Amino acid sequence: MSAAQQVEQTDLAATMRELGARARAAGRALAVAPSESKDRALRQAAAAIRDSVKRLLEANRADLDDATKAGATAAFLDRVRLDEKRIEGIAKGLEDIAALPDPVGATTESWTRPNGLNIARVRVPIGVIGIIYEARPNVTADAGGLSLKAGNAAILRGGSESFESSKVLIDCLHAGLRAANLPEAAVQLVPTRDRAAVGHMLTMTEFIDVIVPRGGKSLIERVMREAKIPVIAHLEGLCHTYVHHSADIEMARRVVLNAKMRRPSVCGATETLLIDRAAVATHLPPILAALFDAGCEVRGTEEVQRLDKRVVPATEQDWWTEYLDAIISVKVVDGVDEAIRHINHYGSHHTDAIVASDEAVAQRFLDAVDSSIVLHNASTQFADGGEFGFGAEIGISTGRLPPRGPVGAEQLTTYKYVVRGNGQTRP
User: Fold this and answer.
1) Does 400 reside within a domain?
2) Residue 240, SS3?
3) Which structural domain range is residue 9 located in?
């Protein structure tokens, strides 16, 4: 490393420590902030976003231009892109978060001991949340808003691909915080595209209490490997839809088409379709026709290829692939048990669905598939905190330990025990 690079890295380390110190102080203030103040900050931030549509679109155009020059795919550009409808969705998401009950201070359980001590388990903020994410600028508002609602300070390291858009969104969040007399340092954006900032965040044990990564497989693997701080992992969305022979044919066609093609670039998009062998002749042709008509590439096993010459051969690698694009792999399976085995072997424990009229078969699938979200007769694209009534989410946690599934405001709290007595002493 050259002398100039050493100076640069020293400066970055100092910048990150300063961010951390400000976040820690802001987190202590937020932990005791009234619900009304937090909600006012969220609503005023939403108003600021609506007032900044032109500025946001200009910043996003710059981000898209940079990503295009770097050779980004159409699917990737879709994840970066903002338009007036998406900007309104971001503002509405903050208002939805504001409308939720405040999770901080809620008693989840209480009991009284024989000696008269009353013990309550009460939700409290975690402290400072470090969020590392790629591409999607809406995560800047969602993550900042949810952290604020839960009484946490947030340090956001957004993707370099949406850096300009995120800076405008942070300005809007700061406007909301100022209007509510809350510290602006409650939500901070790492002010550099330098990837070395991620390395600093992963070791800032003095200032950051938990890391939430949201992005591609390489980012998640790096965070899991290098973090000295607890991690709420959002792994890739290798999602499946299984169509059982008892499924209503039209329902199966609509659900699969939506699960794949509504937005192919989101983590809840179905990447592999599993079709019951007993349903190949009846259910698969209309599903394939709908996918091809929508512009989807289909990769399939030999039985699938025989149904339609447009199907290209699937390889072993396809069962392991999160396309995030208008591509789907299709495999014929011998019943629900083989579907379950395939999903538990190849899946990422994110979101998987069954389309079936047979309730016993559906229940077996829901019980046996080891994923954070399982659905019956519904599109995998419902894997979203907003659709769950959480207002928004900062990711889908795919680990075994809680929080699991969509991570909203409530999932960004921990708890403590509050014990009340009237002079008891222990014998």
Assistant:
1) no
2) strand
3) 3-233+407-419
Q: What is the DSSP string of 131-162?
A: EEE-S-THHHHHHHHHHHHTT-EEEEE--GGG
Specify the CATH number for the domain of residue 31: 3.40.605.10
Residue among 96, 99, 95 at smallest CA distance from 47 = 95
Q: For residue 139, what are its two tokens?
A: 């995560």
User: Is 312 in a helix, a strand, or coil?
Assistant: strand
Which pLDDT tens digit goes with each residue over 348-358? 999 999 999 99
In a domain, 34, yes or no: yes
Asked, for residue 427, whether it belongs to a domain, the answer is no
Q: Establish whether the linkage from the previous residue to 137 is cis, with ω within 30° of 0.
A: no
Q: Cα-flanking dihedrals φ and ψ of residue 274, to 5°? A: -105, 125
Residue with tokens 């969104």: 169
pLDDT digits (tens, 9 = 90+) for 190-228: 999 998 999 999 999 999 999 999 877 788 889 999 999
Structural domain total, the chain: 2
Strands 297-300 and 239-243: unpaired
**Residue 408 to residues 82, 160, 276, 372: CA-CA distances in angstroms?**
22, 24, 35, 14
Q: pTM of the full predicted structure? A: 0.87
Structure tokens at 246: 């008892």
E strand or H helix that includes residue 405: strand 405-406
* CATH number for the domain that contains residue 270: 3.40.309.10
Q: Tell me whether residue 392 is in a domain.
A: no
The crossing angle, in degrees rounded to 10, of helices 84-99 and 35-51 is 170
